[in-house]
Write the structure tokens for this entry.
Amino acid sequence: MSDPLSTVFAALADPTRRAILAMLLEDDMAVTDVAEPFEMSLAAISKHLAVLAEAGLISREKRGRVIWCRLEPDALKQASVWMQGFGQFEPVDLDAFERFLEDELRSADAGDSPPGLCPGPRDI
Amino acid sequence: MSDPLSTVFAALADPTRRAILAMLLEDDMAVTDVAEPFEMSLAAISKHLAVLAEAGLISREKRGRVIWCRLEPDALKQASVWMQGFGQFEPVDLDAFERFLEDELRSADAGDSPPGLCPGPRDI
DNA sequence: GGCATATTCAACCATGTGGTTGATGATAGA
DNA sequence: TCTATCATCAACCACATGGTTGAATATGCC
């Protein structure tokens, strides 16, 4: 890619990566744990994490043999400012985000997963 | 692609398409006029416009032999809510967006374009 | 040391993306 | 009607992306 804004938007354009970010919203995670709920290889998840790190959306720190992934929300700021400029939406509404995530998870639950488990790789 | 959010982010992940959206922010434009400042073929711009329309970010209306493109900012709303949830940024700051655009244009001007002309296909 | 675990690397494959050129279909205007 | 203009379509190309598998590299633990 090239410019930071393009890199960030491209990183966000994949549901697996967005789901990873949503997982990291709760807490830092090791790569293996990030990969666990997804039905793809660890190598694939590792690539996704590399894309997210390249975009600055996460950082990775090696402690022992485990690599911990941490959300870096600042990387979203420039992109968010860009979008806000177009939308002229009402003031920030974090509740709207939580409702959005809940709706997404609920509709995904109807499909392919036993209830009551942790979120998993849904279309977030 | 697949889900709307992915489609929107993918559409935004290209600087040409973001520049087009910035142009449409000022006024509706015909396809030929959209293409004019870019150094690529009309067909390429037509494809970009198709991507933007697919994402719902613009609409196209044919009047006579001219197709008018209009910005559809509502398509950004869902994506914006998503991002806000991660960023927990300070309240919406439209001034920040304008400064951002200005900075982008200024830094681009240093590069490849005679001064004083209309914005053109910069890295917006 | 030796083995198991954590993560990435490398090679490969199918598909998507961004661009080109040339042909094609509408429509406006002389 | 003839011609020029507006826009897309179709075929093609180079390259990026998202996935796989198998090997390689580190590190922790017995």
In short: Helices of chain A lie at 4-12, 15-26, 31-35, 42-54, 75-87, 94-112. Chain A touches chain B at residues 1-3, 5-7, 9-10, 12-15, 18, 21, 25, 71, 73-74, 76-94, 96-98, 100-101, 123 (CB under 8 Å). Confidence is low (pLDDT under 50) at residues 103-124 of chain A.
